[in-house]
Amino acid sequence: MTARHRYWFPAKRYGWGWGPPTCWQGWLVVLLYALLVLAGCIAWPPTRDPVHFLLWMAFVTALLIAVCWRTGEPPRWRWGG
Residue ranges of the domains in the chain? Predict the structure, then answer.
């Protein structure tokens, strides 16, 4: 990304993936993810409807990963430093 466009999700220092958000847009995405998880818990309680709950969780987690992939630092394995 250019200097004008910061990453919403920086790469983790160790391992593969992204760390906590660095701007308000990233925090909004995390808040929306948490609200969608809560909505899934209410709509399909895991103890009563585990299949629908797991499908919902897979769907919203895939959306979160897609947003992180598009707006975050390119993922690669990191050893620190």
Answer: 22-72
